[in-house]
Amino acid sequence: MNRKPIFHLAGWSAAAALSMLACTAAVAAPSPQPDAWPASGKPIRMVVPFPAGSGSDSLARMLAAKVSQQTGASVIIDNKPGAGTMIGAQDVARAKPDGYTLLYTIVVTHTQNPHLYKKLPYDPVKDFTPVLQAVRSATVLVANNNAPFSTTAELIAYAKANPGKLNYASYSAGSTSHLNGEILKMKTGTDIVHVPYKGTADASRALLAGDVQVYFDGTATAVENARAGKVKLLGPATDRRLSVLPELPTLEEQGIEGLNIVGWQGIFGPGDMPPALAERVAQVFRAALETPEITQTILSQGNEVSGAGPKEFSAIVQRDSARWGDVIRRIGLVLE
């Protein structure tokens, strides 16, 4: 009479043992190794928080194509523009940190937005893993050809003699071109009116049309327009002279301190990405970045190839965030 319960108990124990073995095996199963990334047949989605055809988008697509060629993996560009890069950034912040969702963005997302906006839809530190700084870039202060000045010193003198009569463009409120314009005003004691536009193309057109007199433009566009005789080059806002403009002194060399924070483009993963995986992703994209065709494209645009990996890039992000935060607090700029 007792055998039936004993039989059931024994059967239950066997089932439990099998269940425990299965759980143990699942726990003990090795996690995917970083060296195996990217896995065959698994696409990599790279979110670009800018419209297709923008400067950052173009380089992201070049890198994606080269990584696909070198590894056989499919790298898909997913454009998610809007809200000062926050829409795309939020998408990546919510993703799994497995290396298959990445963010290709610029300095704004992690070093300027946290100080410009009262509330962000993500934590710029906890929700991201810096992976690779791809490019160092600079802006160049340019003037309309009909402006009544041809040098930085003449610009400052004219602005002081004519307060409120000069306008400067930015490609959006809170952008690097806007912040550099405010630094220029703060450091020189001038009153130059800010006119924000919707994108770099609109800002450049406004400068060429004479709607504004000065603009901190991207190096490639500034050099192209100068060579075509369309603008006057006043000086780069960077920490050293540009290789494409070696004879043009930086604005800091010309006496304006603080206009020397270099811009950049880089790759981030979601927060909590394993360090070994972040290093592997950086290694793969660095190999693409350093190919002759991509390197030459970057240099021809007046930019520099970086290749800084996770640890170095993380330090760069922290440093630049502190510097931009100080500038933004001094200006008193807050965006909703």
UniProtKB/TrEMBL annotation:
Q: Is Hydrolase one of the keywords?
A: no
Entry keyword annotation includes Metal-binding: no
Write out the entry's keywords from A to Z: Signal
Q: Where is the signal peptide?
A: 1-28
Cited InterPro entries: BUG, Bug_dom1
Protein family (similarity comment): Belongs to the UPF0065 (bug) family.
Query: What is this protein called in UniProt?
Result: Uncharacterized protein
